Amino acid sequence: MWSFPDSYCLVRCKNSPPVKNATLTDRLCAYGEHNIGKRCDSQCLPGYHVVGQGHGDRANSLECTEEGTWRGPSCVPVQCPPLSAALIGLYSCTNGRNAGSFCTIKCPKPSTTVTKLECLTSGQWSRDPGTCVFSTEPCPTLLNTRELLFNCPNPSPVGSTCSVQCVSYDRIPVLSAAPNQDTQGGDSRERIDLVTCISSQQWFPAVADIQCLDRCQEEFTSDGYCDAVNNHAHCQWDGGDCCPSTVDGGVVRPFPSQCTHECTCVDPTAEENRRRNRVRRHHGADHVRPLRNV
């Protein structure tokens, strides 16, 4: 009597791993299927670096996992330090603080000073942004509200900052909506600890744009489940748990299981949303892109 042969299913990763903003350095990885544990090396493109690493770290590696997906860090744009918040409203940049972006600073009248600088791939500006001469008029005094407490110098000239905190310790101040000015590359519902007196003698962000939300449940961040309470910018979008391109394993598991709208992929930096924005621009919805402050 013949014995039955042992049989099993072999999980493999198909095709080459995704190399967004990078090029493969191992050409064999671009063909066929790959066994679990296979590592494929790539290098971030100039102007990009491995997320969480220094600006000069471009060598990357992705691994074939037991789920048949590729896992590893992504390549993100090199960014220069934020320009002084006091300059908000006085400058425009071609691509925010990303490497290769050109910025123009125009000091307020009667000054005619114009400064031009570039964000280099080293993560430094090509020159010192310099300073502008501002009005000596201070920003208006900030009064505490039912939700918010402010700690400000008196008076508060241009460039000065006020700390912001919520009356309740269990809550934190965040932007309730995207403000009128650009938020140094941030996005809505971003945590705000300071407001700055800018050149127009106004506070930025505006107090009307700040609200208090419950603190993030950090023990449930990056745990493999998309928690609605953490699916916000100030909670780093639940550590990536709510988007297929950022969650470990590529499968989103909402918690609770009936969570729908609040557990959708809303991280603007996730590949799904960047792809959607590219398609929208391709069809003309965003054909002309105005210059924005950094």
Describe it.
By secondary structure, the protein is mainly beta. The protein has 4 domains: 12-77, Complement Module, domain 1; 79-133, Ribbon (Complement Module, domain 1); 148-214, Complement Module, domain 1 (Ribbon); 218-271, no CATH class. Helix content is 5%, strand content 24%. It contains 2 helices and 19 strands. The strands form 7 sheets. Strands 2-4-6-7 form a 4-stranded antiparallel β-sheet, with no helix packed on it. A 4-stranded antiparallel β-sheet has the order 12-13-15-16, with no helix packed on it. The chain has a 3-stranded antiparallel β-sheet with strand order 9-10-11, with no helix packed on it. Strand 18, helix 1 (236-239) and strand 19 form a beta-alpha-beta unit. Mean pLDDT is 83; it is low at 179-187 and 285-294. Residues 11-77 form the Sushi domain. Residues 274-294 are annotated as: Disordered. Residues 275-284 have a biased composition (Basic residues). Keywords: Disulfide bond, Glycoprotein, Repeat, Sushi. This is Sushi domain-containing protein.
Q: Quick summary of this structure?
A:
With 294 residues, this protein is mostly beta strands.
**What is the alpha-carbon Rg in Å?**
24 Å
Q: How many strand units? A: 19
This entry's quaternary arrangement is: single chain
Largest sheet: 4 strands, antiparallel
Distance between the termini: 77 Å
